[in-house]
Amino acid sequence: MEKSETTPIEGISREQLERPRLTFKEKFGYSLGDMASNLYFQMFVLFLPIFYTDVFGLSAAAMGTMMLVTRVWDAVNDPIMGMIADRTESRWGKYRPYLAGLAIPLAVAGVLTFTVPDLAGSGKLIYAYVTYILLVMMYTAVNVPYAALMGVITPNSSERTEVSSYRFAAAFVGQLIVGFATLSLVELFGGGNEALGWQMTMVAYGLLAALLLMTTFFMTRERVTPAKVVRNKVSHDLGDLIRNKPWMLIAGATLFQLTYIVMRGSSTAYYFRYYVGEGELALFGWTIPLSYAIFTSAFVTVGSFSTLIGAVTTKLFTKRIDKKNIYSYFLMLSAGFSALFFFVDPSQVLLIFFLNVLVSFFFGSVSVLQWAIYTDAADYGEWKFNRRATALIMAASLFALKLGLTLGGAFVGWVLELHNFVPNVEQTEEAILGIRLLMSFYPAIFGIIGGLLMLLYPLKDTLMVQIEKELEERKAQKEAEDNA
User: Fold this and answer.
1) pLDDT one-digit tens code per residue, 176-194
2) Domains in the chain with CATH codes
3) Contact between 389 and 237 (Cβ < 8 Å)
4) What is the DSSP-derived secondary structure letter of residue 145?
5) R_g of the chain, CA atoms, integer Å
6) Which among 330, 357, 184, 181 has a CA at the least distance from the CA of 257?
7) DSSP string, 60-83
8) Model's pTM, two decimal places?
């Protein structure tokens, strides 16, 4: 008889599922891996498009198309990496070895991507394709195992939600570093040579990311192992994934969520460089001049702090409201406030920052809950189909995330080209309109669709209590049978 997807066992409480809690040290250590990842991810979101158009020398259309085409390999690479990680056996576990072994290759790939080669025409475009593909491959090879690691350091869903809060607090510190420091580091390292400045900035970020990933490797342990069964066939793993309705819904929501935030994030540098321009902020009788670099950095930094506050206060909301509802409503609220940017005049500096605080705060909880919901979907898959493939689920989830990243970046390039954007010159009214739409209505559409999609997500917190209890009972029964 098919198990119900909606009816929890009567009388089960969270207290019945208490286990030895993870230490602060391990939660903190795990979180540092996402800080490392965000040094790259935020560069993808905030600065890679404008680097390619204004420094590297690609047209907006070529940049947008490249971001789409290079993900064709990712369509294969992500699930392959997940299945490889799930089948890895080592003294350090399934997933942790990839964090230590690929930290330096990831750093090298980042530096190569942000290097402007002395090539002409198609040679430069080919270099961009090759280095960007290499970078996203290394990013996948580190982040698929890293995401899967959260599903095996503890079997408890509520504790994973807390670990996710630590993870995204650290992720937003990475976001803060990139948003606050990047343009200043480019000026400092470049000394007037913008191309050199970007290259050396990535050297600094790469070394820091490698150190953080190694720290995660040493400070975490893998505790959850699937019941001893015959090794899953790849076709079974893929079939289970497609039949996993909760995963399909959160993956779809992730696609729209990331398209929303990446379109908005990638538009930020263009918005301040070409629409807002130089400005000034009047506070308490003081007038603070704002250059493009300062204005952009301050905007991103304020947003990062607001997102961090949203992330660390998530638990206050999850105590009273189901995770899926918080994800849905907060994503739509964030998108709605983002749409209001279309009506803001460049001189309304305080309003620009205020709206950014609201957009970022509500998105903070969305980011935290996203990965906690994915690990719940992995538990559901094991409960429903008696097979567990944590890394495959995380790999496919990361692909949904990166597809959103891809589409968001591609749309930015295509919309700029549609509105006749030309880099490093004063923009026409048509180009300015395109930049304003990229910062407001266009991304908001995707955010609202993602929020509506999650209203259909079936795994309520009460059902997860039932699933956790039954998985523990199965595991205990299997161990008893093996020891008999």
Assistant:
1) 899 999 999 999 999 889 9
2) 20-222+233-479 (1.20.1250.20)
3) yes
4) H
5) 23
6) 330
7) HHHHHHHHHHTHHHHHHHHHHHHH
8) 0.78
